């Protein structure tokens, strides 16, 4: 029976079906490629290979064409700077031919020696190849983004469910529309080389290459912002960036200037509260919610308008790291989020989010249930306005070249398509100036829309001419001015009926010019209090710890005391607990506490079950372990869409003697629990020859089990400490018992299959939260 024949099925069911079929379609699009690669690798595909084919030990000397990209790599669409399909293959690359050449295409016979007067020099100025090579290298760097410098990106597809069509005429939201996208995730405060897992807001920017031109949804993973007016953006960014004298700390908010600013500028308190929660340390980009933050306006076919807020809901749920884990990862694998995203795509666990909208009547006061929709420090709880899913985003490909795509992509909240317009939110209005302005410098001139990743997939006839790095060869005598007759009047403007972008004719109230915010922007604490009261006790503990840690890192007593005052105005218990940790008295609130706060349970990240795609399970084994069981477990993990990593005393293979060797991904030296979601012990590995503190300080503890490699017990204990699932069978179960790893979240069983079943159930809840008891 079709959906239309079945009036009883709920909208939610229908949307779930649509999501499932869209997910299927997107997966099919890349599945052929991913499976081919897996077969070629001869067995389970472990992501992370640097190239598309395994290298030989000896340096290759036979000339050949450049190797193809890896199967999961995708490139920007092969369209010209003016949006025309060039017919080039999708994997068209910049480098061609089997031979090394100069930039002018002249073949070279040597690139390792400068041209010299004799073998011992001097070097000759005549050496064009030397000068060209060094000149180009000298200019490889471009300015990093002034904010959001550290990031990663991927290609994907957006499939519309069609249910937003009644409120917007945007073609990419029509029934059945499918649109290519490029997505960039980022941190805000750190430099381009900073660690991924610092406590920070994350960027979530999506470029839709729609049939009506590019639409950018430039959002964050927190639905509210630090400031209400864009004029203060330099202030908040200067406050959080490294302090100017010593240029420290890198990518951290735990320092005086940040807390000095937010404690005086109390409209930042709501955003700061989110930052101190698990939202500030996302587990992965794949498990991160996204928000458009500012209120936008949708325009229907008949011109009717609706105010809207945008959401991205991850299919795998919203999850966080724990703080100690985040700190360890920043050292052990600073590229953790980037690696996770690319590994997941490579392993075929394609990340997915549903685009959701909250809609509000476009009333004159632009308020909803007393919440000012133009105030970006406020959000509307889902309990008041449900989020309606309107389409599915699936990331299907890693970039072909990181610099060309991820570094050069240029997002802008003003890149709008017919059917979507801006509101008067003063933060959004300032953003509309800032992005173009900064990109002019960052990308070296005004022609960055012509960079392949930025090109629209529709005809471009913009009358913009010349400038640095002009890639288009414009034709015609006169078509760069309007009106003209010499060029036949080309190009022509068109109204809304022909797809022209026409701004909503919004009335502007009679007013005076002034530098002032509306009174409704004055409340800085009630929604911070709502967030605090909506958290589970465990999440509240984590927030208390985060404030205590961050303020504990500040030097100035006055800054700490002032922030405690702000906390007192949010919640006295929160203030008391943080003050206790700082060793300071808890001040009294200076304003009446908001006592009519409605809590929003949907803000909590704890208490549900989610799919486990792409989760990493470490299997610890040595030659004495049940290697048949390990083989079986690897296959079962792979079949369940997760990634098995064998961890052994040495690299290479385990089980050579049995004739069915098992590839090893990590050794006791290289493995760290923080890169795993669960650990399973397949035996009781004896101390390896390198298990000495001098060789590996991790081996220097005080093991309760001298017969087991101390790095194994440390690995398991660390995973346990971070509330991760720990499993074992056979001799491994005895090791867990001996080191006291028992209780909730520890799965022992007779067979690997039984252990995996238990571990998977725990992974669905993300962590074994019971292992973090809370104070009462
Ligand atoms: C609702 C609040 C805001 C959100 C959600 C937001 C989001 C983002 C995101 C996701 C990026 C990274 C884009 C990328 O991946 O390339 C970004 C970059 C940037 N943002 Fe914002 N931002 C906000 C407020 C502001 C404000 C108020 C300003 C300035 C007045 C601003 C200026 C910038 C600049 C200059 C960049 C760097 C752009 C580039 O170099 O390409 N942002 N923002």
Automatic annotation (TrEMBL):
Basic and acidic residues composition-biased segments: 1-16
Catalyzed reactions per annotation: 2 H2O2 = O2 + 2 H2O
EC number: 1.11.1.6
Annotated GO MF terms: catalase activity
UniProt keyword tRNA processing, yes or no: no
InterPro entries with a match to the protein in the record: Catalase (IPR018028), Catalase_AS (IPR024708), Catalase_clade2 (IPR024712), Catalase_clade2_helical (IPR043156), Catalase_core (IPR011614), Catalase_haem_BS (IPR002226), Catalase_immune_responsive (IPR010582), Catalase_large_C (IPR041399)
Cofactor dependence: heme
Uppermost EC category: oxidoreductase
Keyword Lyase recorded: no
Short name of any one Pfam family annotated for the protein: Catalase-rel
UniProt feature, compositional bias: Low complexity: 17-51
SUPFAM superfamilies assigned to the protein according to its UniProt record, in alphabetical order: Class I glutamine amidotransferase-like, Heme-dependent catalase-like
Domain Catalase core residue range list: 101-490
Highest taxon of source: Bacteria
Stretch list, region Disordered: 1-94, 685-707
Keywords tagged on the record: Heme, Hydrogen peroxide, Iron, Metal-binding, Oxidoreductase, Peroxidase
Role according to the record: Decomposes hydrogen peroxide into water and oxygen; serves to protect cells from the toxic effects of hydrogen peroxide.
Family designation: Belongs to the catalase family. HPII subfamily.
Name of this chain's protein: Catalase
């Amino acid at each position: 029976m079709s959906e239309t024949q079945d009036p009883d099925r709920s909208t939610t069911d229908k949307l779930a079906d649509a999501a499932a079929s869209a997910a299927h379609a997107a997966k099919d699009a890349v599945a052929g490629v991913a499976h081919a690669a897996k077969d070629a690798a001869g067995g389970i595909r472990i992501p992370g290979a640097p190239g598309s084919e395994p290298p030989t030990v000896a340096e290759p000397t036979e000339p050949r064409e450049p190797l193809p990209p890896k199967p999961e790599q995708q490139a920007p669409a092969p369209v010209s700077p003016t949006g025309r399909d060039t017919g080039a293959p999708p994997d068209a690359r910049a480098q061609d031919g089997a031979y090394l050449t100069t930039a002018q295409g002249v073949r070279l016979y040597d690139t390792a020696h400068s041209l010299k007067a004799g073998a011992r020099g001097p070097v000759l100025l005549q050496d064009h190849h030397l000068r060209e090579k060094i000149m180009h290298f000298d200019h490889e760097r471009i300015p990093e983004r002034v904010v959001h410098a550290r990031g990663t990106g991927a290609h994907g597809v957006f499939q519309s469910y069609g249910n937003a069509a009644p409120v917007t005429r945007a073609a990419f939201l029509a029934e059945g529309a499918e649109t290519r996208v490029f997505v960039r995730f980022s941190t805000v405060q750190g430099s381009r080389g900073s660690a991924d897992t610092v406590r920070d807001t994350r960027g979530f920017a999506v470029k839709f290459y729609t049939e009506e031109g590019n639409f950018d949804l430039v959002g964050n993973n927190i639905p509210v912002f630090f400031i209400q007016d864009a004029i203060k953006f330099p202030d908040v960014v200067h406050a959080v960036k490294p302090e100017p004298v010593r240029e420290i700390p890198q990518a951290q908010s735990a320092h005086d200037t940040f807390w000095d600013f937010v404690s005086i500028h109390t409209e930042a308190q709501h955003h700061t509260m989110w930052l101190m929660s698990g939202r500030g340390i996302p587990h992965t980009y794949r498990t991160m919610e996204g928000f458009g933050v500012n209120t936008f306006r949708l325009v229907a076919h008949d011109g009717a308008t609706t105010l809207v807020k945008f959401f991205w809901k991850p299919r795998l749920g919203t999850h966080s790291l724990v703080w100690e884990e985040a700190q360890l990862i920043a050292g052990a694998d600073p590229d953790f989020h980037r690696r996770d995203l690319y590994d997941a795509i490579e392993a075929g666990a394609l990340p997915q989010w549903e685009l959701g909208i909250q809609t509000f009547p476009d009333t004159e006061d632009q308020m909803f249930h007393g919440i000012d929709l133009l105030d970006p420090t406020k959000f509307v709880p889902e309990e008041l306005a449900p989020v309606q899913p309107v389409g599915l985003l699936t990331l299907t490909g890693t970039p072909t070249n990181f610099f060309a795509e991820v570094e050069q992509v240029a997002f802008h909240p003003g890149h709008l398509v017919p059917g979507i317009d801006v509101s008067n939110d003063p933060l959004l209005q300032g953003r509309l100036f800032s992005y173009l302005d900064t990109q002019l410098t960052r990308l070296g001139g005004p022609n960055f829309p012509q960079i392949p990743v930025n090109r629209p997939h529709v005809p471009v006839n913009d009358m913009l001419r010349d400038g640095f790095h002009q890639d288009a060869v414009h034709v015609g005598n006169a078509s760069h001015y309007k009106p003209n007759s010499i060029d036949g009047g080309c190009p022509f403007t068109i109204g809304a009926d022909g797809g022209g972008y026409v701004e909503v004719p919004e009335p502007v109230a009679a007013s005076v010019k002034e530098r002032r915010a509306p009174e409704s922007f004055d409340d800085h604490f009630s929604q911070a209090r709502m967030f605090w009261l909506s958290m589970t006790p465990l999440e509240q503990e984590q927030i208390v710890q985060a404030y205590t840690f961050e303020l504990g890192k500040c030097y100035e007593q006055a800054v700490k005391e002032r922030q405690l005052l702000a906390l007192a105005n949010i919640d006295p218990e929160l203030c008391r607990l943080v003050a206790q940790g700082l060793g300071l008295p808890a001040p009294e609130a200076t304003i009446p506490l908001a006592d009519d706060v409605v809590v929003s349970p949907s803000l909590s990240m704890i208490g549900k079950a989610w799919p486990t795609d792409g989760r990493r399970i470490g299997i610890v084994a040595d030659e004495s372990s049940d290697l048949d069981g390990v083989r079986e477990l690897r296959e079962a993990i792979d079949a369940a869409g997760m990634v098995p990593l064998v961890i052994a005393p040495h690299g290479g293979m385990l089980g050579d003697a049995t004739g069915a060797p098992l590839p090893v991904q990590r050794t006791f030296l290289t493995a760290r629990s923080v890169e795993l979601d669960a650990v399973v012990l397949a035996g009781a590995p004896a101390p390896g020859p390198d298990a000495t503190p001098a060789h590996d300080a991790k081996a220097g503890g005080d093991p309760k089990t001298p017969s087991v490699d101390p790095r194994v017990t440390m690995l398991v204990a660390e995973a346990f400490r971070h509330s991760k699932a720990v499993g074992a069978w056979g001799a491994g179960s005895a090791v867990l018992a001996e080191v006291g790893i028992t209780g909730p979240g520890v799965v022992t069983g007779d067979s690997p299959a039984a252990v995996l079943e238990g571990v998977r159930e725990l992974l669905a809840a993300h962590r074994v939260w019971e292992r973090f008891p809370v104070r009462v």
